[in-house]
């Protein structure tokens, strides 16, 4: 039985693109930069592989000229594929660009989800491709394989071209994000999907620390102001394609957890917002975080930096500062810190709220 190797190669590449795209979306550590490098390499590989695939597509369409439901679905899939690739490449070269309030990288992600569903459908239902002359040929397969090496070469050259031409894409962070508003109070305010800023009465607000602890705590803003304050300089990196470096001031989670007397069975920590939004981390990682209460903002030359409370949009009265994590996991408007006896992976890969 002849096998349509090019189709299989394309499907494998798209699956890898989905996995590396997800890993790049959720991981803010420089050690994970390779996932987005691979994502970029495969993007160029797909562009080259489409040329190898073009002859097969043309022959298949010549054999059946009638527009059926399958043909319409395939046309939509092809258009989505080209659009997703174009949005991603345009963002990497000349971002940040926004359409209708959405960054091109956000649109790239949103369209990639239905694209993968259609690609799986295509791989399953369009098996007739085996009957198309050339679909299983060795020459076509070798051309597809060569596109993998070509993609790596084009990716490396593209980085040099962006730097040489002084394009905005040359200055992106390893996550693909562009810098906006570092060391100033006026940096972007965003929330995840349906998570909306509540109105919080600061003096009445309370933070509960509970769960697998010997001494549960209920803390007010005045209580936290009396704790030793730490300053952490780190970037909040939004999945929408921007990042901002700030000097965050607040209470170290290590000190807070120590004060509660963490029980031996504790395995993870959940940070929950007043809105119900929550994210969970391992106990070891959570201890490295900061309970952010304010931002140190640069003043005119000759004046010391001023620590300003968080604004409502940025999580007042307290938010999680989680270095190495994307902004989607920096829970705002904290209400509960809960220590769990179960592990950190018992949650959805991405927030559902």
Automatic annotation (TrEMBL):
This is Oxidoreductase molybdopterin-binding domain-containing protein. Gene3D superfamilies: Oxidoreductase, molybdopterin-binding domain. The keyword Transmembrane helix applies. It holds the Pfam family Oxidored_molyb. Keywords: Membrane, Transmembrane, Transmembrane helix. Residues 199-342 form the Oxidoreductase molybdopterin-binding domain. It comes from the Bacteria. The chain crosses the membrane at residues 7-25, 31-51, 72-91, 97-120, 140-158. PANTHER family: BLL0505 PROTEIN (PTHR43032:SF2), PROTEIN-METHIONINE-SULFOXIDE REDUCTASE (PTHR43032). InterPro entries: OxRdtase_Mopterin-bd_dom, OxRdtase_Mopterin-bd_sf.
